[in-house]
């Protein structure tokens, strides 16, 4: 599972074992973060790769840390990969990269 953190929205992407992609956007309020956490738990997510610039990742890290194995990914490395154009496309790419690599 991958998560892209921006100032106004968190975008998450779940890649199932069958290759299906589930994407959804959430706001930055605590209630929305808890809703996202609950959705992730219902999808049986165990590990989360999170890409973020600045400090936008900190609130979601605190909500997710007790429930998941978290990895903060440097956006510089992801941006070097071809095809990373937007936050939503980037989140999908992050999800695929996270699934294939052991950060």
Task: Walk me through this protein's architecture.
By secondary structure, this protein is of the alpha/beta class. It is 39% helix and 26% strand. The chain has helices at 30-42, 57-64, 75-79, 87-100; strands at 2-5, 10-15, 21-26, 47-52, 69-73. It has a five-stranded mixed beta sheet, sandwiched between helices. Helix 2 links the parallel strand 4 (47-52) and strand 5. The protein is globular. The model has no long low-confidence stretch (mean pLDDT 77).
The structure class reads alpha/beta
Instruction: Report the major sheet.
Output: 5 strands, mixed
Low-confidence stretches: none
Helicity range? 25-40%
Strand content: 25-35%
Gyration radius (Cα, Å) is 12 Å
Summed up, the helix count is 4
Identify the quaternary structure here: single chain
